[in-house]
Design goal:
Length: 146
């Protein structure tokens, strides 16, 4: 996997471990929109693969898609202004908790010792700003199916 691909995945996981939260419209269970995540990764990999053999690019894309398919993340935004984020990647689960608050049309997610993260709901999806300079500008979450 290319250095960019690894950095992208690490920035994604870092975002997930930084924290999340919201207002009454934010409350509930959210999961990563895997199709959006895959599309963002493919776009980034293609942009970084100039000069690489097509077969190598295809193999990296397939590996990244497989990693996304095998991973899971659930963000539980609770009515008591707290959240719990549970993420599993490569068979390892990590859990993070913090607080959230509504700020106008946005949500501000706070975790002790970490910078705040902002998000907003657009078209029924929760878009969380990516605190890293690498990767996509937002991580997209969808409401968890019950």
């Amino acid at each position: 996997m290319s250095r960019f691909s690894i950095a992208f995945l690490l920035s994604f996981v870092t975002f997930l471990l930084v924290g999340c939260g919201g207002g009454s419209s934010y409350e509930g269970e959210w999961t990563i929109d895997k199709e959006v995540m895959k599309a963002q990764m493919i776009e980034a990999m293609k942009a970084q693969s100039a000069g690489m053999p097509e077969a190598a690019v295809k193999a990296q894309i397939e590996m990244a898609e497989s990693m996304v398919d095998k991973s899971s993340s659930t963000l539980s935004i609770k009515s008591d202004d707290t959240y719990i984020l549970s993420s599993t990647m490569n068979g390892q689960t990590q859990t993070q908790s913090g607080t959230w608050k509504a700020d106008g049309d946005s949500i501000v997610l706070s975790t002790s010792g970490q910078p705040d993260v902002k998000g907003e709901i657009k078209d029924g999806k929760l878009l969380i700003e990516n605190p890293s300079s690498e990767g996509p500008r937002h991580t997209t979450l969808i409401r968890a199916k019950k």
